[in-house]
Specification:
By secondary structure, the chain is mostly helical. It is built from 14 helices and eight strands. The protein has two domains: 39-147, DNA polymerase, domain 1; 174-357, Orthogonal Bundle (hpI Integrase, Chain A). The radius of gyration is 30 Å and the shape is elongated. The termini are far apart.
């Protein structure tokens, strides 16, 4: 029986009435068609398995776009993005692309087909910014395949022309900021908020912050961890404010934002609950960064110092890289933050430096200061293994009496 003539070297097909998809290819050496099961009936999942199989066994070299499936290109890109911070967003975007476009050949990505995809996503309620991000994932996957000589050429990928107008960023008044801090019930989110206010760093940078990045001698925090390459979202070196210093000195462990001993993967839920308790609407985890940037400008901090705190300003010369060791490095920004924290402490008592040595035994609530370890209700003596009991055990009392008798 002659083999089926197909434009691609590998294809999907079923062999019985089970509906399970099989990967087929023609073996030139044995002169027969071979197959391998994908263990799925779902065509989209089968396309992903096909792409993985091709990448492992026969990665294309300078292939024309007419002979390479889009699923193969995007699967290779997702494998590359697996360890990147935006891996989840890339996966979600690729799922939408595969769901709407299927798995055409790369050459089939015409302008009309791309516009059909964008219209379909608009009909589903996706924002223009979301659609633009998904198209950028598609563009990045094709460009990577071209740079790695998988594809000989790649089609032009359009972008969203009319993006939604950028809404004004939410900023908190000092009373709202106080309500926000008083609404925090967990220590890990308290540290997150405190670091946000005093460093103006992005949420991702704060979640990954460790004590290795803290320099107490020069009172600096390098927001970019060792080994991480600087990106467009630059992580600068910022000064340690007077308000933040005692909390850093009292911190135990390497990671600064942890929950039950583990680094926090997301603070969205804690932020949402805090906003609910504080009755604050329209705020995001970035709101503190926007609020403090506006506050520094309101207090007369020079724009280049605000840019330095935000990571928008980079060193232009080798000499300027050593500016961080100047005692006055971002001095006006640091002074403005400390002045703001003094005003904020009057509204949030637990911000006082002496509370940095205190750890909560339970969740904080209603803005109360965290409890110290207490014995019963006295709060005077330190906790001992045999204390905090209403009645002492008789055998312990007798043992203590015998010891006193021997000594006598």
């Amino acid at each position: 029986m002659p083999r089926r003539r197909r434009p691609e070297r590998y294809w999907l097909d079923t062999i019985d009435n089970t509906g399970i998809q099989y990967i087929h290819w023609y073996d030139e050496g044995k002169r027969r068609t071979r197959r391998r099961s994908t263990a799925t009936r779902d065509p989209d999942k089968a396309q992903v398995e096909l792409a993985k199989f091709v990448l492992q066994n026969d990665r294309p070299k300078e292939a024309p776009p007419e002979g390479v499936k889009l699923a193969l290109v995007m699967t290779d890109y997702l494998a590359y993005m697996e360890s990147k911070p935006s891996a989840e967003q890339a996966l979600i975007a690729s799922q939408h692309v595969t769901r709407i476009l299927g798995s055409p050949f790369v050459a089939d990505l015409t302008i009309d087909r791309q516009e059909h995809y964008m219209d379909s996503r608009r009909d589903e309620g996706a924002s223009e910014a979301t659609i633009s991000r998904e198209m950028s994932v598609l563009r990045a996957s094709l460009n990577r395949a071209y740079k790695r000589h998988v594809l000989k050429t790649v089609p032009y990928i359009v972008d969203v022309e009319d993006r939604s107008p950028q809404r004004e960023q939410r900023r908190l008044t000092i009373k709202e900021m106080a309500a926000y801090l008083n609404g925090i019930e967990t220590y890990h989110f308290w540290m997150f908020a405190l670091l946000s206010i005093n460093t103006l760093a992005r949420p991702d940078a704060i979640r990954g912050l460790t004590m290795r990045q803290v320099d107490f001698e020069d009172r600096l925090i390098n927001l970019n961890p060792p080994g991480r390459k600087q990106t467009k979202k630059r992580r600068p070196i910022v000064p340690i404010t007077n308000a933040l210093l005692p909390w850093l000195e009292a911190h135990k462990g390497n990671d600064l934002v942890t929950y039950k001993g583990e680094r926090v993967a997301s603070i969205k839920k804690a932020h949402k609950e805090t906003c609910r308790r504080a009755k604050i609407a329209g705020a995001t985890p970035y709101t503190i960064r926007y609020t403090m940037a506006a506050e520094l400008r309101r207090r007369g901090v020079p724009p280049w110092e605000v840019e330095g705190m935000l990571g928008h300003r980079m060193a232009k010369s080798t000499t300027e890289r050593y500016a961080v060791f100047d005692p006055e490095y971002l001095g006006k920004a640091r002074a403005a933050i400390d002045a703001y924290m003094v005003e904020l402490t009057a509204l949030v008592p637990r911000l006082r430096a002496d509370n940095a040595q205190v750890r909560p035994l339970r969740k904080w609530g209603n803005g109360t200061i965290p409890l110290k370890r207490m014995v019963g209700g006295t709060g005077i003596e330190p906790v001992a293994p045999t204390m905090s009991r209403k009645v002492a055990r008789p055998e312990i009392v007798n043992l203590q009496a015998r010891r006193r008798t021997r000594k006598a």
